[in-house]
Each structure stands twice: as structure tokens, then as C-alpha cells.
Amino acid sequence: MKAVHIYPYSSMKDIPRSDTIYGMIFIAMKMLMGEEFLEDVLQRFIEGNPPFLLSSAFPFTFTDVTKQHWLPRPMLPPFDPFMGASDTERYGKAKAFRAMKYIDSKTFSALASGEKTECELFESWCAGEQGNDAGGCENFLPVETMHNGIHRMSGSVAEGVLFSEREIFFRGGFYFLLRGDETMLNGPLNFLSDFGIGGNNSTGKGQFSYEIGDASFLRVPETASHIVNLSCYLPEEKEIALYRNSDDCYYSISSYRGTLGTHFTGNRRVWKKRLFLFSEGSVFPCNMGKKVYGRMALVKDRDEGLPHPVYFTGYSFPLHFMMKEGTR
Fold first, then answer.
1. What domain range includes position 33?
2. Fewer CB within 10 A of the end CB, N or C, for the chain?
3. CB 210 within 8 A of CB 7
4. What is the Cα–Cα distance from 46 to 300, expressed in whole angstroms?
5. Strands (E), 184-317
6. Which phi-psi region, left, alpha or beta, contains residue 180 (left: φ > 0; alpha: ψ -120 to 50)?
């Protein structure tokens, strides 16, 4: 397993999720290698034999010695934070803990290997032994930036028309995990480092430098009782049936409806089909005997006025997770 570290040159609209990263890499493949090459790669994905798998992107910070990597907090069975006591201060801490989006890679590894439960994590967090959530200002700073509206007929600034956009200024960067043929990503990543990734790349946003290395900061067990998902996961029907009949799944579902990049639609907003996905951090039983979870989905067809069909890449990026005895 590899980690691709991204060092942004500017602010960005958001940290990209796996579907955005896949989409931009496929676009770069078409630009560099041609449409026939991309169709061969997509066919492998459609047939359930992807040559590589990607996670969503997560933040990292710089410390005095090395990088501090952050991952989504796994969704685990609920526990009683009060331990039978009624404490207003503890209630506030429990509320803040449940709102945490990220935990550091060392703590994530301890949870994944079964060395620590979420209740023990909460206790160490209350005692100040566990660092703050990376969603705070110590890693990236969300800012609302004002812009002038543009008159579409004249191309000039429209009087009295203002709008705001959220931008993220990084105090580190972000990374995503990679399994499979990493050589297929070298050319596309070189292209995207200049082209930009994410929204507003036409104005110079999203450019970056990058490096690919081993994900040695992450430690997961070789065998496990569960998997934790780190991507936008669109399950197959068989997987849905299994999860529906199981009382050992802990997940969050998000609604997603993206648009095609305006570079390729003549500055026209084209909406894709809405999908419902399992979010990053969702935990499922590891009893299907599968190496690949998830599927591709057709979200825009040629019949809708496009020169080619558009697919959503909904493969899970699973990590082994050992649920500690007494957690369930």
C-alpha cells in the first residue's frame, strides 16, 4: 500500500474525495494516452477488476520530526460516556468527541489492531493524552472569500452582484492511499499538478507537487473481523443484502450528486445522477471473502447529449479492522 502526498500551491475549495480523484486521473489519462487507452482502463473497472484502488484524501500536518497523518474516526458501536454518572462537563466533552472527524494515524492503528476501544480513546482524549481533531484550525483554515458576479452577455462585472465561496488554506497538505499499479498514476499526476485538481482550477487553484511513498505510518492487522472503508463506497446488490441482514455494521450514508467539469461541457453545468454512498469511516463485517468491494455506476449516458457515457467510481478502499472484544 502506498501513500500519495499532495502539497497544494494555493487554497482549494475542498479536500477531494475518492470519486473526484478517480475522475481527474481518468481525464488526465485521456489527455495523455488517448481515448482508446482510457476505454481499456475503464472496462477493467466496469468488469470489477480495477488495476488500482484509491482512497479519499485526508489531511496531514507537519511536526518537528515528521508528518502527522489523519484518518476518519471509525464508526463503532455506541458506548456510555458517562459510565452511569451525571456530569454536565462530561456531557460537553462527549458531544465534542462525537463531532470529531479525524484521528491521528497512531490512534487509528491502535483501534484497527484491537489494542484500544473507542471508549478508551474517549478517556484518553478527556485526559488530554489524545491530540485535537485535525478538522480544527491547526491543519487547514476554511475562509469565505467574496467574488464579483460576471454579466454573462458583456463579460464585465455585474453591478451589485456579489457571492461568496468557501476556500481552504492549508498548513500542511493532504494525501490519499493507493493499492495496485502505481506506475499508471505517474503521468496523470504530473499532468494534474499543472492542470489542477478540484474546483476553480481554471483560475489557477488546485495546482500542487506530489510524492509517492510507502504508507508506513499506518499499521493494520493481516487478519481481521471487520473492514473500515476509506472511500466513497457504492455497494453491489449482494453486499447491500448482506449488510441489510447484519446487526454488525456501523456506517453513515451520504447523498451525492456531482456535476461534470465545465472545461468539457462548454462552460455548461451538467448534473450527474444522484447516488447514495457509504461514507469514509464506515465499518462492515469481513466475512464475504472478497478482495474488491463496490462497483461502477453509470451516471450520465450518451442519450443525454454527451459524446461518451460518464461513470461514478464507487469502489471501497477497505482496511482490516479487528473489533476489540467487549466493543460490540
1. 2-137+170-321
2. C
3. yes
4. 15
5. 208-214, 226-229, 253-256, 275-278, 283-285, 294-300, 310-315
6. left
Select from 327, 318, 317 the least CA-distant residue to 55.
317
Q: Which residues of 256-295 are buried (b: 16+ CB within 10 A; e: fewer)?
A: bebebeeeeeeeeebebeebebbbbbbbbbbeeeeeebbb
Per-residue pLDDT, 101: 86
Q: What percent of the chain has pLDDT over 90?
A: 37
> Contact 154/161 with Cβ under 8 angstroms?
no
The verdict on residue 40 lying in a domain is: yes
Query: Is a pLDDT exceeding 70 seen at residue 98?
Result: yes
* Nearest residue to 286 via CA among 202, 222, 226, 209: 226
Asked whether residue 145 is domain-assigned, the answer is no
Is 192 inside any structural domain? yes
The answer as to whether 133 is a domain residue is: yes
231, three cell numbers = 472511500
**CB 31, CB 236: distance < 8 Å:** no
Burial class (CB in 10 A: 0-12, 13-18, 19+), 242: middle
Entry pTM: 0.85
Neighbours of 50 (CB within 10 A): 21
Q: Tell me 264's DSSP state.
A: G
Return the closest-CA partner of residue 23 out of 229, 274, 297, 307: 297
For 104-146, write each residue's pLDDT tens digit: 899 899 889 888 888 888 888 777 765 555 444 355 666 666 6
Residue 153's identity, in one-letter code, is M
Nearest Cα residue to 68 out of 145, 136, 144, 161: 136
Query: What DSSP state is assigned to residue 229?
Result: E
